[in-house]
Amino acid sequence: MSILVVGSVFFDTIETQYGRAERALGGAATYFAVAASFFTPVRMVAAVGEDFPPEDIAFLSGRGIDLAGLQRRSGLTGAWAGRYHEDMNQRDTLQLDLNVFADFRPQLPASYRDAQYVFLANIDPRLQAMVLDQLPAPGLIGCDTMNHWITGSRSELEQLLSRVHVLVINDEEARLLSGERNVVRAARRLLAMGPRRVLIKRGEYGVIQFSANAVFAVPAFPLEEVFDPTGAGDSFAGGFMGELARSGDTSEAGLRRAIVYGSVVASFVVEDFGMNRLRTVTKDEIEHRYRQFVALTDIDAT
Ligand code: AMP
To answer: Of 95, 172, 225, 246, which is the most exposed, with the fewest CB atoms less than 10 Å away?
Structure first.
């Protein structure tokens, strides 16, 4: 089963203690789509400007991503710049230019309307809602967001959350959205806003999934060096939702496996700048690290 994603396609300028990348292909929908494409076909809804290069289009379609819903508009592709602290869980946004996203109105191609698995990656919650409005019978709806939208478009975001099944959000944003410092209390508040499951991403500390009656936690895969965490959260979501769409198994066990696949893909992304590692990683490497991940958390090993 394919998965449909709406979200940002941006050029990213990134600074970490290891170096700098200038106007690299990025954006939440891009990371999500490339990560998910290792598991299942992906359909993308987004906008790019006239400056978006043919090589990036070729890369995305080469990964089997359907770009019928990617509008090329007059103007410039959105741009984001961020700088990481020495503690890579901390970053400052230096620039956010929505450019063609500012007045983008998604129009889903007819071929997308049967979508069952949908992910509303980080972008204006109004655009996320417009995509849902055009889907007659979506099955599983996941959603992410960011501090920019939580502070700037809270009421639209809250309305949207009442329509979402799985919220995937990082710990700082969970605190901001819920008004609770403690992550467990924050998750309870977020569950009360609508989603049946809340997955809280905690950077190098991994992910915790909360539902009404269960909690499941996985660590991040231990790495000696993290070069650039950009896109780790979106790639986590791509691996997670991509695996769910592939398996069709939305039982508790199926979700837990998908969470581990998401964590595996995210662990590759941070090994190099921007999208670089996603360009070279193979499905075999993903499967190998999945097995290492299972061994890492095997509490009955002798
Ligand atoms: P992550 O590191 O997973 O939080 O995602 C970083 C990606 O989100 C980058 O590739 C950015 O281009 C994109 N991004 C940054 N700010 C925003 C925003 N306000 N709305 C949508 N996407 C954004």
So the answer is: 225
Q: What is the pTM of this model?
A: 0.98
Residue with the smallest CA separation from ligand 1 atom 9 is 27
Q: Is residue 136 part of a domain?
A: yes
**pLDDT value for 302:** 82
Domain that residue 256 falls in: 3-296
Asked whether the beta carbons of 81 and 94 are under 8 A apart, the reply is: yes
Of ligand 1's listed atoms, the one at least distance from the Cα of 78 is 12
Question: How many structural domains does the chain have?
Answer: 1
60-70 pLDDT per residue, tens: 999 999 999 99
What proportion of the chain, given as a percentage, has pLDDT over 70? 100
Ligand 1 mean position, distance from CA 236 (Å): 13
**Pocket flag, ligand 1, residue 10 (CB < 6 Å):** yes
Q: Any idea what the CATH number is for the domain that residue 78 is in? A: 3.40.1190.20
